[in-house]
Amino acid sequence: MKQILHQTEVNLRRIHALGVQKVAIPLLQPLGCIPLIAKDSSYQKCNDIINALVIIHNNELKNVVANLNKETKQSTFMVIDYYNAFLTVFKNKGEKPGSQRFETPYKACCGGLCGSVDKNGQKNYTLCDDSTSSFFWDGLHPTQEGWKSVYSVLNLTAFSI
């Protein structure tokens, strides 16, 4: 983790030296909630140990950004808090509190080897009936509706980047 954070800091310094005025750095999402991990709980909960490690990483990254901002004497760098945005969507099961759009937010719409077929052309995967009711498309990636909900929570239009 230290090597990744160090390289991120080096890269951010390079970007700043090129004259870029503002840089947004995303924090990690709660990786303990992705379907590849949540399947161990039958998609009912996140893995708290993995999420604790993500929190440590995100806190260290926030420290790197804060130190860089002190050095540049301006808020050149900002973080985008994917971690809490994802958790808010999971808790609310959608972009609006009380929404039931994502009934099982940790379960993927595409199960199996998404997009692959066997030697006879038979699909090696299954799809949910309605991808708009799934937060995740596959074991890692949110659906378009999932990202729409995250960005609604983040309200990035409030930032002048």
What does this entry look like structurally?
The protein has helices at 2-17, 35-38, 48-72, 82-92, 144-154; strands at residues 23-26, 77-80, 110-117, 123-127. By secondary structure, it is of the alpha+beta class. The protein has one domain. The chain has a two-stranded parallel sheet with strand order 1-2. Strands 3-4 form a two-stranded antiparallel ribbon. α1 packs parallel to α3 (48-72) and α4 (82-92) crosses α5. Belongs to the 'GDSL' lipolytic enzyme family. This is GDSL esterase/lipase At5g03610-like isoform X1. Keywords: Hydrolase, Lipid degradation, Lipid metabolism.
| Rg, Cα atoms, Å | 18 Å
Low-confidence stretches: none
**Order of SSEs:** HEHHEHEEH
Mean pLDDT over the residues: 89
Please state how the strands of the largest beta sheet are arranged side by side: 1-2
What helical percentage do the residues reach?
40-55%
What spatial form do the alpha-carbon principal axes imply? elongated
Structural class: alpha+beta
Cα(first) to Cα(last) distance is 28 Å
Question: Keywords, please?
Answer:
hydrolase, 161 residues, 42% helix, two-stranded parallel sheet, SGNH_hydro_sf, two-stranded antiparallel sheet
Short description, anyone?
The protein is of the alpha+beta class. The protein has 5 helices and 4 strands. Helix 1 (2-17) runs parallel beside helix 3 and helix 4 crosses helix 5 (144-154).
Topology:
Blueprint: H1 2-17, E1 23-26, H2 35-38, H3 48-72, E2 77-80, H4 82-92, E3 110-117, E4 123-127, H5 144-154
